[in-house]
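[step 3/7] fold_predict: job queued, chain A
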Amino acid sequence: MTAVELVAPGVHRVRDSCEVYVVQRDGHAIAIDFGTGAVLDALPELGIERLDAVLMTHHHRDQGQGLPRAVEAGIPIIVPPTEQDLFGRVDEMWATRTLANDYNLRQDRFSILAPVPVAGTAAVYRTVEYGGIAVRAIPTPGHTMGSVTYLVEPQDDPGAGPIAFSGDLIAAPGRVWSLAATQWSYTENEGPAMLVLSSMLLAREAPSLVLPSHGEPIADPVPALELLTERAQAYVDSRRLQPWALRDWLDHPFVRITQHLLVNRAANSCSYVLLDDAGGALLIDYGYDVSTGWPAGTDRAARLPWLASLPALRRDFGVERVEVALATHYHDDHVAGLNLLREVEGTQVWLPEHVAPILADPMRTDLPCQWFDPIPADRVLELGGTVEWSGYRITTHDLPGHTLYQAAFEFEVDGVRVLATGDQQTALEGPLAAREILNYQYRNRFRTTDYVDSAALYRRVAPGLLVTGHWRGRWVDEGYLDQLAAQGAETAAVHAELLADEAPPADGNLVLLEPFHRQWVTGDTVEYVAIVHNARDSEVAASVQLALPAGWEVVSPPDAMAIPPHREARFTFSVRVGDPGRRQRLAADVTFDGRRLGQLADAVADVAPPLRLRASC
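[step 4/7] structure written:
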């Protein structure tokens, strides 16, 4: 017999592999977490015919090993947005997870054994009704990176604080269910530090009752959470050389550079805020807000977009509206939070014209550090063009170097001309600035003269202040401009000396095959494009063939082309997709002037069988 207990009006606890909570309102019911699925056996005792939804606080197996029963019963499953792949695509984690020589200590293997269909993700920071039951979700990382807490207003006292279904954030006053779960990398303290922030944030919601996944109901939650904050902070500091002022990190993330220009010091990459005098704000880059570090792994469940700094922005600087967000380039640590800003704050996303296509169609081009989801532009900014926002004139400049798809934003604020340059160079001041680090990475796409060109741009714009993606910024003088020009020339010369005369471009991308990664269906006819670059000083006659997986075929091949020196040509193939399979490989085989250069570019495709519709009678 499954143990069932009333813990609050309209809320029952079902004892299982974790505590499963059933919330009932006006003939509807939802479950928070699912355990082994024993909650379904308890429904008749509660007078419930079916659940309207199951809401998961996190991905661990003790929370959800019985989810196949929910699927069989036709119950929609709602999961934390960061952890959606550990439910709907967990088989990919099991297939690719490092096992030998493994330094990834995250408990991602404490996931369900097989994927389940996900009906949706928790809309964090917003209230959503499930079967008429209003639920608000907030990120509470710590036990896992993607953990969320669900807040529901109490049935008997709407004026009291919400009931918080907190997963494994807290198990008892000042105590947690697992410290091992908070160890996200081999030597660092990202998880315990996030636990400190989350316990503070949940306490600020002033819950009237906290219902943990493991442990008894906590009837006096705020002191219990404050005690957890204190103890978790002591734990973090015990493993560091210096104490970490995490409360200050959360409460005062923004530092003034000028009166109307701020930098978020707590973000993983620097996010800048341009203020007007009417409560409006414009952000330059918005990736991982209030971050305590990188967990091991680069999967979605290791990355958390959230809005933790916005309360401080409102409280300390009078911001009422985050109206616009710009992105200097496409890398996830600069853009991961843009969709969330748009969804929660109504922020418009303005993107440079060469960055917008990359973000709109991630994985079409073989590039590193891409965010998982498309980020469409509300406005596309012309390179060399100027737009206005709240009296500021912002000019978008092409700034290749760190990546071919990067822009610099020029504007004046408080009498200072500012140039925001993304991750182009370190831009340090003081004794460490005797020499900059020019931050080029070849797979980002790079040309040997990019830093010569950027130094010329800096001299032409003549900013008083340069602000950067990870090193904040520095005040600019002629000596600094001379230094960047010299280093740009040196970089070009070093490459010219080292690379053979007819070598591929410096970034290695003589050929790109697009789309780089796609999901197709067997029998589809699709298009692939080989983009071939001629790095030589003379014209070449080029032809391309595709190496295809078994069962695939080229329907319409392109003709050979003459490519002028230092130009590109696009060879378009019509291709019929073959049998189902994951990570099927394609390659572009290139010939220049009769000499076969080989399979210089690749792409991968996941192929599903065709959907078979059942005939109706």
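[step 5/7] annotate
The radius of gyration is 27 Å.
The chain has a mean pLDDT of 95.
exit 0
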